[in-house]
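Attaching the record inline, Q. Sequence:
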Amino acid sequence: KHSPLPFHPEALPAAVAADCAHRQGKFWEMHDALYAAFREGEGVDVDGMAGELGLDVAKLRACMEGPDAIARVKADLKLGSEVGVRGTPAFFVNGRPLFGAQPYEAFAAIVDEELKKAEKPAERRR
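Structure, as predicted:
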């Protein structure tokens, strides 16, 4: 889900661009290009990135300027707020939250606990 940081002026447009790239099957490629540009301190040229990624730039631009993509991103933000997300990253494993940058062991512990629950006979889980 998208969770653009409210204090980052380019976060919402970047989330919308990534969402629109997803419509053309290139979410992760756009995601990675955007993050690389932010890390390098470069200005974000979404049209240029889209062209380099082989996206239909006109289609991407129309998507970004239409109401649907921003509505999807805002719906993700609303859902995150409703389930207690206050920042990124935020993860849920079978509904159990894990907030912030966590080590592998934190994920492994929750996943192992959830796997153990799944192994119990159905009668005991009720």
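The chain has seven helices and two strands. The first helix runs from residue 11 to 22.

More tomorrow.
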